[in-house]
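Work Package 3 (structural annotation) set out to generate three-dimensional models for the target panel prioritized at the project kickoff. During this period the team completed the workflow that converts sequence records into discrete structure tokens, so that structures can be stored uniformly alongside our sequence database. As a representative example, we reproduce one entry of 107 residues exactly as it appears in the project archive.
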Amino acid sequence: MNWISLTNKQDFETAINEGGLFAVFKHSTRCSISSMAKSRLEREWNFGTELPIYYLDLLNFRDISSSIEAISGIQHESPQLIVFKNGKPIYSASHNGIDVSEILEKA
């Protein structure tokens, strides 16, 4: 799995404006549920470079999550995975609801 650190709002906005396919995983490093979701995601992720995935450390960059919520219209949760295509969310799940097989169906 090739995590791309999401550390500023501009990187997210650029990805949205480019309109490609990408995912954002919101992770709280203090939450055991978030750690379990991240571990499961890493085991099951079978996308190569065709689906870039951004990693958002919520403890250090909570303001970016607020921007994602404002742009996508999807309420913030943690852990949370949102997949975007053509600038719009096509998949959103949180906690144990994150399912890689569902992403394959929508992407």
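Residues 66 and 77 are 10 Å apart (CA to CA).
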